[in-house]
Amino acid sequence: MHLLDEGFAPPEACVQWCRARANPLHVLDDSAHVNLDWWNHQLRERKHEIRLRGRDLDGRVVERGTAVVQRNDLQLGGDLVEAEHDALGLLFLCAAWRSAHPSRRATRRLPDVFNPYAPKTPLAKIEHVLGRCAKEKRLPEPRGDNWSGWPDMPGIGVSLMALYLWAVGVHREGARAQLIDQHGVSTLIHEGWLEEPSVSGFTLRRYDRYLQLLNAWAMQVGTTPELIEMWLVQRWNARVQEARSGARSEPTLF
Fold it and tell me: How many CA atoms lie within 13 A of 44 on its CB side?
């Protein structure tokens, strides 16, 4: 089944869920509770001149403890990042938000972005790519024989890169880049999308097809691709919870 086939329409549950929510408020308020002490300690240990912040429950910017980071905070020049290179600082804030989000599949780890082949300028490659994405609102063309289509980005996976691309407003084929999460893709597979089941294996071409699907569904529902992507993630988590509840309610057989 091709993802743009007319038969692959958004499920009714998706339609109802998206229409019951206000965008952009629901998207931009999407929050994660980030352990600032852990992240800033790891950044210092790795010699990054970057410090992450968050907000307390009253919205004040704080530098210690566990703090709230909203999706609306994922922007260049915001209050929550202090860094020599704004784009790299934003990447780490995106990593912190994603790993702390209760609905998304991500582990808390500091991305290893240093280039071992350029010890004198180990961050030059990634800073160059991130900076061009932010400035030009598009992905730079990959160099050399790169089968995936993604720029050479040491230590950065597809999901984190997609979140960064959304944060800086990169566009692909006229549409804004969107988040991609393993839980969301698993929902698509469950609904009948015959594509790569693992996000880590997504080429740039397959990611573009994924964006086409989100935008096609958003047009049919009368909503935004951001809400479609959020439903995919929420639906997977709801199915897991339903399965666990069903298992607990089943009688024990002797």
Answer: 8
